[in-house]
Design brief:
The chain is α+β, with helices and mostly antiparallel strands. It is built from two helices and nine strands, in the order βαββββαββββ.
């Protein structure tokens, strides 16, 4: 069952996908037309899943699932990945490029390949990045973390 993202429980499970390019307003309309029909029918062993999605900062496509109502597993998660792959294929967002780092610099999101981090001037261990490894909706409020607390700290000299 598809609901508004704001109505999802704070303990809802998240899948976070970062786009290497800005998700334009026209993209958002098309994404909505692809993902909502899937989420409306998304189920696990015949049980409807309470779920939603949102796009944050024009770079992050986030799918949420309230597992307290019905859990998910195997084939239903595969179905989600398939629809996200379709979206990625249609728009070339590079949503599955897990070595991209999303920096928050001067109140803007910047997508950078992790291997190129040391080439960006002005970065230090306290520069904020978006932690795409969050697992629960409540973590969105704290998903900006310093590079020194992230997996990509080793890429800074």
């Amino acid at each position: 069952m598809y609901i508004d993202f704001n109505q999802l429980s704070e303990n809802s499970r998240l899948w976070v996908y970062g786009s290497s390019r800005i998700i334009q307003e026209s993209d958002k309309v098309e994404i909505h037309n692809i993902i909502v029909p899937f989420l409306e029918k998304w189920n696990y062993h015949g049980k409807s899943l309470t779920c939603s999605y949102t796009i944050i900062n024009n770079h992050f496509l986030i799918v949420g699932l309230d597992e307290s109502i019905n859990p998910t597993g195997g084939c239903s998660v595969d179905g989600l990945q398939k629809i996200i792959l379709e979206i990625d294929h249609n728009f070339t967002f590079n949503l599955f490029e897990r070595l991209n780092v999303f920096l928050f610099l001067k109140n803007k999101v910047h997508c950078v390949a992790s291997k190129d981090l040391n080439q960006i001037t002005g970065l230090d261990q306290d520069t904020l990045i978006f932690n795409l490894n969050i697992e629960k909706k409540q973590e969105i409020n704290n998903w900006l973390i310093p590079i020194k607390d992230s997996w990509c700290k080793r890429f800074l000299n």
